[in-house]
Every structure is written in C-alpha cells, then in structure tokens.
Amino acid sequence: VIGWVGSILDITDRKLAEQERERLAAVVQNSHDFIGMSDIDGNPIFVNRAGRDLVGLEHDFDIRSTNIPEYF
User: N or C, which terminus of the chain has less Cβ within 10 Å?
Assistant: First the structure.
C-alpha cells in the first residue's frame, strides 16, 4: 500500500434528529385524534390513521382524491 485516501464525517447529530423524527411520526400516526396536513390549496398531503377512519378513507392514497374542506 502506497497511501490512503478517505474522509471522516460525524453523523451523530443527523442520527439523533432522525430518531426524533421517527418518534414524532409514531406519535402522530398512533394518535386517536385527527391529524392532517395539506398544501396551500387544501389538498391533503397526510392524514393519520384516526383521521382516515373518521372521514371513511381506507388508504393513504385515498386522501389525494379529497380536499380538506370536505372533511368538515
């Protein structure tokens, strides 16, 4: 071996942020309350399981065929 080439990168902060995001996602998904997000036009981007059950949507892809005002 004549030489080595490489780099070192500390990804501790990135891994901690990823773990925190996963915990928050689990809380949102398992909440018994309706939790949803939409774009500025009211098109749903995300609705948790409880929210989908409340408005009668079976799958994640079903939310794209609705609009947030329809839920009320």
Answer: N
